Amino acid sequence: MNTNVGQPTKAVILLSGGLDSATLLAIARERGFACYALSFNYAQRHSSELNAAEKIAANLGAIVHKVISIDLGNMGGSALTDQSIPVPDTMSDGIPVTYVPARNTVFLSLALGWAEVLGTSDIFIGVNAIDYSGYPDCRPEYIDAFTRMANLATRAGVEGQHFNIHTPLISMSKADIIREGLRLGVDYSQTVSCYAADEHGRACGKCDSCRFRAAGFKQAGIADPTRYC
């Protein structure tokens, strides 16, 4: 709900610093939202994606870019938060060890809290159910369930404000996401998608995320600007 008549509607945009979330921010901006970008320092393997998120937020016109620190490394259980678990360089059956337990639920919950404070109903998340690693919290069923919860568990929801979790990328191929981002002026050379990027943001070229990204640029017929180790 936009409480400022004549002003753009605010929206919270989950921004990781990767290819998908950069495209997400550009889409939200094109739709006329005043974008409040939200990133997380959650004890992930590297900080390169947060450095990328800072640049992307500035270049794509985010009103505010907030970074919240949460130490998901205390739980472990994922190759992205536990340095003792190697990032796999081959595709695996089932849900891979790069899945971070409850990550999207935690991120969306904090985005929901900030949205309530901002007085907005709109949250954008770049989940994708096509070119992804099989994470359960990227499925449409999960987003629908979280939306129902959001409208039950908040003062704004109880008072009649309906929250909307926007997932414009959820059924797009990686190639289509890239084409859309280029149309909207996204500089993909600034993005970091790799699960095991080095301190300079250079990608390993072997992990699932690197494979999906490289395949997307190839399928789109566009030169891949990714910097590799």
Explain this structure to me?
The protein has one domain (10-220): Rossmann fold. Strand 1, helix 1 (19-30) and strand 2 form a beta-alpha-beta unit. It has helices at residues 19-30, 48-59, 103-118, 140-152, 155-158, 174-183, 208-220, and strands at residues 10-14, 34-41, 64-69, 122-124, 164-166. The longest helix is centred in the middle third of the chain and has 16 residues, at 103-118. The chain contains seven helices and five strands. Helix 6 crosses helix 7. With 229 residues, the protein is of the alpha/beta class. The mean pLDDT is 94. The chain is globular. Strands 3-2-1-4-5 form a five-stranded parallel β-sheet, with helices on both faces.
Count of helical segments?
7
Shape label: globular
Query: What structural class do the secondary elements suggest?
Result: alpha/beta
How many individual domains?
Answer: 1
Strand arrangement, largest sheet? 3-2-1-4-5
CATH topology: Rossmann fold
Q: What order do the SSEs take from the amino end to the carboxyl end, as H and E?
A: EHEHEHEHHEHH
SS elements, strand count: 5
Strand content: 5-15%
In the CATH hierarchy, what is the superfamily? HUPs
Question: What would CATH call the class?
Answer: Alpha Beta
Radius of gyration over all CA atoms, rounded = 17 Å
Question: Assembly type of the shown chains?
Answer: single chain
Return the CATH architecture.
Answer: 3-Layer(aba) Sandwich
Distance between the termini: 45 Å
